[in-house]
Design a protein that fits this description.
Blueprint (H helix, E strand, L loop, with lengths): L3 E7 L3 E7 L5 E8 L11 E2 L1 H19 L6 E8 L4 E5 L9 E2 L7 H7 L9 H4 L8 H11 L3 H6 L3 E5 H9 L9 E3 H4 L5 E2 L4 E2 L1 H7 L8 E3 L2 E6 L11 E7 H8 L8 E5 L3 E8 L10 E6 L7 E8 L3 H11 L7 H6 L9 E3 L17 E3 L7 H27 L6 E4 L6 H11 L3 E4 L4 H13 L6 H7 L2 E5 L5 H18 L5
Parallel strand pairs: 1-5, 5-14, 9-12, 15-21, 21-22
Antiparallel strand pairs: 1-2, 2-3, 4-7, 6-8, 10-11, 13-14, 15-16, 16-18, 17-18, 19-20, 22-23
């Protein structure tokens, strides 16, 4: 009898393998970090072969430690850091270049050249996205234009492109020995290459970016039986791969936001607020992204509006590693609690530009409002508050675009353990912020998608029954103080703009 469903969560800083039971509870988890590579200012890379090796390692370690066998696993799902781009050789499996990470800004000139009359939204109707260094398409073009031999191989159908999900599925299903070259609609919607209405690769976009179509994976739904894991991967051999979701869409699914108007925010390396908008795409006029939420088998696709913040948890890491005022990330809360407020300083962490709702690649990080009064506690508090302020910007844009007044916000991700931050977030938004009992909703969403495909779970209603709240934060801030803080934040944003040309 099949007892469990498992999922791979390949994130920006680490890879995890998690096993779940029928109630959506974690049975076992294993994790391994990978190197962050910064060749130049604004450039961010990962080693694809390290990620592949780590994926196999966390699977093997987990099953060895738990003594769970592949025969007990009903299905495997995959969720991944989105937009991070790999181009590799079909015959050897060797990448032509490191993975270019979603945070990377080297494609700024490519994006400028593609703008029609300086309009970053010139392709938005087709792809739901502004022209930005964030997305995969310009990264593929950069590799084709700058790495010797890649374009020639692409034209011969030897070079393959994929986001991290595609890379992992290809290796798990055989790699150079006939690995499956696929992606799902959520990941495809982050490339600037898929038409969000047809759910197919768009010829006009491929022509605009000069990308040979033979490089691209087949687009599939987020929940269906794709293939079995290769016999070469002994720990999980022959387990069906059945789920594939970009990490933020996977968190939306794991939070069981199945109805239009339900929203979640993930506080991780970056910060990502998604709102289920139903079966029709909503074009944003407030600087948000129109994206695919998920697609289950042959059912109609579900769309979402998304606001993406580039720097959230990674700002705490920067504060820990580069500034050195704390030894571990969790110590920042105690340091921030040593003062009553931010002392009048604001930290805009535009290290690689600003994402939603501003989309300014010329922005850079600033700290404003410094006086002799400011100490390390105020700095720590400003670091935490930056995430809440950025989320508030996205939240207000989302309400304007959707016409929906959100009544609560479901939250997940590593930063939701920070009680001070969550209370400040509720204060800024003026609505309850709710943390579920199972906060690993990103990897849970991938497990849910996989389990649905093999009837481990019957339907969305059964999944909904698994969701339970653990804690709720209610706003304690008066309207006048909230307005004052937000106005000061807006001034700080203005100071961050125009640093790069």
């Amino acid at each position: 009898m099949k007892k469990y469903v498992c999922a791979i969560d390949q994130g920006t800083t680490s890879t995890r393998f998690v096993i779940f039971n029928k109630n959506g509870e974690i049975i076992a988890i294993s994790q391994k970090e990978h190197k962050q590579i910064f060749p130049k200012p604004g450039w961010v890379e990962h080693d694809p072969m390290e990620i592949k090796a780590n994926t196999i390692a966390v699977i093997e370690n987990n099953l060895k430690n738990t003594q769970i066998t592949s025969e007990e696993l009903a299905a495997i799902g995959i969720t991944n850091q989105r937009e991070t781009t790999i181009v590799w050789n079909r015959e050897t499996g060797k990448p032509y270049y490191n993975a270019i990470v979603w945070q990377d800004t080297r494609t700024a000139n490519i994006c400028k050249q593609l703008q029609a009359g300086g309009n970053i939204d010139c392709y938005r109707e087709k792809v739901g996205l502004p022209l930005s260094t964030y997305f995969s398409g310009p990264k593929v073009k950069w590799i084709l234009d700058n790495i010797e031999g890649v374009r020639k191989d692409a034209e011969k159908n030897t070079a393959l492109f994929g986001n991290i999900d595609t890379w992992i599925i290809w290796w798990l299903t055989g790699g150079p020995k006939g690995g499956l070259h696929i992606t799902d609609v959520t990941n495809a919607s982050r490339t600037m290459l898929m038409n969000i209405n047809t759910l197919k690769w768009d010829t006009d976009m491929l022509n605009a970016l000069d990308i040979p179509p033979g490089m691209l994976p087949e687009i599939r739904s987020s929940s269906e039986v794709y293939a079995q894991v290769s016999k070469d991967i002994s720990a999980i051999k022959l387990v069906p791969i059945c789920g594939d979701l970009g990490d933020q869409q996977s968190a939306l699914f794991g939070q069981t936001c199945f109805e239009p108007g339900e929203a979640k925010n993930t506080y991780g390396t970056g910060c990502f607020l998604l709102l289920n908008t139903g079966e029709k795409p909503v074009q944003s006029k407030q600087g948000l992204i129109t994206t695919l939420g998920y697609k289950i088998g042959e059912n109609k696709p579900v769309y979402a509006l998304e606001g993406s913040v580039a720097i959230a948890g990674s700002l705490v890491q920067w504060f820990r590693d580069n500034i050195g005022l704390i030894d571990t990330s969790k110590e920042i809360e105690e340091l921030a609690r040593s003062v009553d407020d931010n002392g009048g300083i604001y930290f805009v962490p535009a290290f690689t530009g600003l994402f939603a709702p501003y989309w300014r690649s010329d922005a850079r990080g600033v700290i404003v409002g410094l006086t002799h009064y400011i100490g390390k506690g105020h700095l720590a508090r400003a670091v935490l508050e930056a995430t809440a302020f950025q989320t508030q910007d996205v939240f207000k844009a989302m309400e304007k675009d959707s016409g929906i007044k959100l009544k609560a916000l479901k939250i997940d991700g590593g930063m939701v353990k920070n009680e001070l931050l969550m209370q400040f977030q509720a204060d800024l938004l003026g609505i309850p912020v709710i943390r579920p009992k199972i906060t690993e909703t990103t990897v849970l969403g991938a497990a849910y998608a996989a389990g649905l495909a093999v009837n481990f779970w019957k339907d969305l209603k059964e999944l909904k029954q698994n969701w339970n709240a653990e804690k709720k934060w209610i706003s304690k801030m008066d309207l006048k103080n909230r307005k004052r803080l937000i106005e000061s934040w807006k001034k700080a944003i203005e100071k961050s703009l125009g640093w790069m040309y």
